[in-house]
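lol forgot to send this yesterday, sorry. struct tokens for the thing we talked abt
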């Protein structure tokens, strides 16, 4: 459990917006990963980039890839529910999980299904409840992982590490993910499509 907590906390930090505080944590993250069974290799490219690249460049790249790109959504339910009416119910369930933990969870203005937040919740608040959310949204994690692999982003290693803490092997491609999870297109679109349109059958698009 300790190794998984370290993985989740390190992933939470490394998938969040890079700032001076994260840069200061890099040595701590590297040391913790090294002490937890050599997990550092999955995070090495991201951490090395943080340590060797001007912060402004790292931030600009992060905004481009995670804030402006629909391909790398960090909100778990967006992969499965898109921008649909039922997504509000899903987000409410995330909030209930946080509330039921008995701890005050600061969402920092993010939606409650924001992956770094879920990871930090699992690492520091309620391991079992947080891990249950990750298992429930395994398909979202795997689709994000595949998108990061396709685009050659170093964060793919972090998603591999997170998925490696969950039961079963990772699917090899999107078809396997959809088959495993029984995914289909959103039924009640009210705006945007899911982040990667290629994940859905052509007839399901709006």
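and heres what i got for the seq, position by position
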């Amino acid at each position: 459990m300790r190794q998984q907590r370290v993985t989740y906390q390190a992933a939470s930090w490394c998938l969040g917006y890079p700032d001076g505080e994260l840069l200061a944590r890099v040595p701590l993250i590297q040391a913790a990963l090294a002490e937890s069974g050599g997990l550092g290799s999955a995070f090495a490219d991201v951490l090395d980039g943080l340590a060797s690249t001007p912060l402004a460049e790292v931030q600009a790249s992060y905004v481009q890839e995670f804030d402006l790109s629909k391909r790398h959504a960090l909100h778990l339910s967006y992969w499965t529910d898109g921008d649909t009416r039922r997504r509000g119910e899903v987000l409410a369930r995330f909030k209930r999980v946080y509330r039921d933990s008995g701890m005050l969870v600061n969402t920092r203005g993010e939606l409650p299904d924001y992956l770094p937040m879920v990871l930090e919740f699992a690492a520091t608040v309620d391991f079992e409840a947080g891990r249950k959310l990750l298992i429930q949204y395994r398909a979202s994690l795997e689709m994000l992982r595949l998108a990061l692999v396709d685009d050659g982003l170093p964060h793919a290693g972090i998603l591999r590490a997170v998925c490696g803490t969950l039961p079963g092997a990772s699917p090899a491609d999107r078809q396997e993910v959809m088959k495993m999870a029984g995914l289909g297109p959103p039924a009640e679109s009210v705006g945007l499509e899911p982040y990667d349109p290629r994940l859905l059958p052509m007839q399901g698009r709006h």
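Residues 2-183 form one domain. anyway ping me if u want another try
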